[in-house]
Amino acid sequence: MPHLAPGKTALAFGLVLGIWHVCWAALVAAGLAKAILDFLLRLHFLQFDYRIAPFSLPDAAMLVTLTAALGAAFGLLLALMWNWVSGRKANQSDDLS
To answer: pTM, whole model, 2 decimals?
Structure first.
């Protein structure tokens, strides 16, 4: 099993979750979030009343920052556990750092 570079794995997971939530914040700002949620909930056979709160830049920044940090922490933990389970040390030929 290949060695995973913990830093790069953390960065990748953090970026994926951060960008995903930037997209969500943009949908809220554009007024499209409720239509998308309605569609997704219908696909899952769910129906309930809810409201989308008005867009707030500080809240959006906190959402993106927090989810990116949690994604990075998850990526770091995943890489460390992967490397531990694989029982291999990094070397110059397969280290992705």
So the answer is: 0.81
